[in-house]
């Protein structure tokens, strides 16, 4: 396993060889800061792109495909657009706190991000209370969210901020207790030491039942911590518009947006570090050859590969029978040592205990029913994830795109090789049209064969802009003189161009 500390030591020795120690340390801090920001931006871009693609796969779509190959540059285009958009400040807002809030959120996210050990010797903020510092730094983001909602002077933003703050504070307790389980097992708060203690096995395996329970609690609480579904109540679009950042625009909104996605990565990174060994490869005791092969895989590959793990369990339901009253109970007689229902005090306590256990059993039963329902939904979602996509890449595939024959595009009047059509000017299509999109102009002429007068079509006008493609005109035509083709490109600059003459 490559130790990244070799690189950092070489850089330090190189700088101190031709400059004072203080200046060298200052330059090293600047370089590390730039590297942190660069990694932060890269992770944010990858997370945004991944979410778009994964959500599209779940919904049988292709996601962003326009900018760059397979849409890889779409996020960069969005970032450039966000950087160039105007930052709007609300007139009656607290301007100082309004502008300060996004930077507090991004600062908390960057500090927590810096605590993650990406590789051996690549720990940026690594000291003996690293876990405590990470939780404290991440908690600063709650202050930024509350300030954003309050300073916007918007009741919807304030409600969203209060919801988000209350939810994050509540679930931080569960996250802290789940992490405390691993701290007890390792007897340290230093991330590098936690990873090193998992060289002979990850805690998810060797921590047995306590570690598994803590892992499940952490996954649920971590999902709620970042306000992701089904814990997205603080950003309820149907009632709060967008939540605490409703009044933000431009780069200020971009900071909230980026911080939210990176926080997802931080939650997953902490889970992989304390439960799945972080950058530590999979080692099996006694399998030296296997362990040697695993050591050839870079540590950062292990770290990033472990951030998407899921754990689910199903437990049988539990129920307790309801307590039964004796046939000799008398509600109207009080007996010493008994309650008003005729039951003894001991029986009353027994009933209360049974009721408490019954309530607990019902709660657990409902909990596992919810888990079972969630897994059923995930099964359907996973099936759609591997389903072939039906999205057409128009206009790139314009030359090969084939529409269904039943598709109604534009009403046409076919002509033969001599330029003649089958229309007899009967007017049935015009009479059948409910929108009046068809206007027929005729004239009376004498038939050369029979010598009788007949109507001849002069002009057949069709208003595409008013057509609702009901197919009634085609069904009413007795000679199949008109039909719908599969053309669907109807864009024009003026509405008068939508009126077409079909007999020419």
Taking the sheet with the most strands, its summary is: 3 strands, antiparallel
Beta-strand content estimate = 5-15%
The ordered H/E elements are: HHHHHHHHHHHHHHEHEEHEE
Distance between the termini: 77 Å
Dominant shape: elongated
What is the count of DSSP helices, taking H or I runs of 4+ residues?
A: 16
Element layout with pairings:
Layout: H1 5-16, H2 21-58, H3 74-84, H4 95-114, H5 130-151, H6 155-186, H7 191-196, H8 203-206, H9 208-225, H10 237-240, H11 250-274, H12 288-295, H13 299-305, H14 345-385, E1 411-412, H15 428-432, E2 438-446, E3 453-463, H16 472-476, E4 483-484, E5 499-501
Antiparallel strand pairs: 1-4, 2-3, 3-5
Helix pairs in contact: 1-2, 2-11, 2-14, 3-11, 4-5, 4-11, 5-6, 6-9, 9-11
Can you walk me through this structure?
With 504 residues, the protein is mainly alpha-helical. Among the domains are: 85-305, no CATH class; 411-501, Alpha-Beta Plaits (2-Layer Sandwich), CATH 3.30.70. It is 51% helix and 5% strand. The protein is built from 16 helices and five strands. The chain has a three-stranded antiparallel sheet with strand order 2-3-5, with no helix packed on it. Strands 1-4 form a two-stranded antiparallel sheet. Strand 2 and strand 3 form a beta hairpin. Helix 2 (21-58) crosses helix 11. The radius of gyration is 35 Å and the shape is elongated. The termini are far apart. Mean pLDDT is 78; it is low at 310-342.
In short:
This protein has 504 residues and is mainly alpha-helical. It is 51% helix and 5% strand. It has helices spanning 5-16, 21-58, 74-84, 95-114, 130-151, 155-186, 191-196, 203-206, 208-225, 237-240, 250-274, 288-295, 299-305, 345-385, 428-432, 472-476; strands at 411-412, 438-446, 453-463, 483-484, 499-501.
């Amino acid at each position: 396993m490559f130790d990244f500390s070799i690189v950092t030591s070489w850089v330090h020795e190189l700088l101190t060889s031709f400059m004072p120690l203080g200046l060298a340390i200052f330059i090293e801090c600047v370089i590390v800061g730039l590297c942190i920001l660069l990694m932060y931006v890269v992770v944010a871009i990858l997370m945004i792109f991944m979410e778009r693609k994964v959500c599209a796969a779940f919904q049988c779509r292709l996601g962003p495909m326009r900018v760059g190959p397979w849409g890889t540059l779409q996020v960069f285009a969005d970032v450039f657009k966000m950087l160039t958009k105007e930052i709007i400040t609300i007139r009656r807002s607290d301007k100082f706190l309004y502008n300060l809030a996004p930077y507090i959120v991004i600062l908390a996210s960057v500090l927590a991000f810096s605590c993650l050990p990406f590789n051996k010797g690549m720990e940026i903020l690594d000291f003996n209370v690293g876990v405590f510092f990470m939780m404290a730094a991440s908690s600063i983001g709650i202050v930024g969210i509350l300030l954003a909602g309050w300073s916007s002077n918007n009741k919807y933003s304030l409600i969203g901020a209060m919801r988000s703050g209350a939810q994050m504070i509540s679930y931080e307790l569960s996250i802290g207790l789940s992490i405390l389980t691993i701290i007890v097992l390792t007897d340290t708060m230093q991330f590098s030491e936690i990873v090193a203690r998992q060289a002979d096995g990850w805690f998810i395996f060797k921590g047995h039942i306590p570690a598994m329970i803590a892992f499940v609690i952490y996954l649920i609480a971590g999902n709620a911590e970042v306000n992701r579904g089904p814990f997205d109540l603080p950003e309820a679009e149907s009632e709060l518009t967008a939540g605490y950042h409703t009044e933000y625009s431009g780069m200020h909104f971009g900071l909230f947006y980026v911080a939210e996605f990176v926080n997802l990565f931080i939650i997953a990174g902490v889970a992989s570090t304390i439960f799945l060994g972080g950058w530590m490869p999979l080692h099996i005791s006694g399998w030296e050859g296997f362990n040697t092969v695993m050591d050839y895989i870079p540590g950062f590959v292990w770290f990033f590969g472990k951030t998407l793990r899921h754990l689910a369990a199903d437990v049988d339901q539990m129920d307790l029978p309801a307590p039964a009253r004796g046939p000799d109970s008398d509600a109207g007689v009080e007996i010493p040592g008994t309650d008003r229902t005729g039951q003894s005090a001991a029986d009353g306590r027994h009933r209360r205990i049974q009721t408490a256990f019954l309530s607990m059993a019902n709660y657990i039963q409902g909990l596992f029913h919810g888990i079972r329902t969630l897994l059923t939904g995930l099964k359907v979602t996973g099936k759609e994830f591997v389903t072939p996509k039906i999205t057409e890449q128009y206009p790139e595939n314009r030359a090969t795109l084939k529409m269904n024959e039943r598709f109604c595009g534009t009403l046409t009047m076919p002509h033969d090789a001599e330029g003649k059509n089958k229309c007899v000017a009967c007017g049935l299509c015009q009479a059948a049209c409910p929108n009046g999109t068809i206007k027929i102009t005729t004239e009376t002429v004498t038939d050369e064969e029979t010598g009788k007068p007949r109507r001849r079509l002069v002009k057949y006008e069709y208003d595409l802009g008013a057509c609702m493609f009901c197919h009634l005109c085609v069904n009413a035509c007795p000679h199949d003189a008109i039909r719908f083709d599969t053309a669907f490109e109807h864009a024009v600059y003026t509405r008068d161009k939508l009126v077409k003459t079909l007999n020419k």
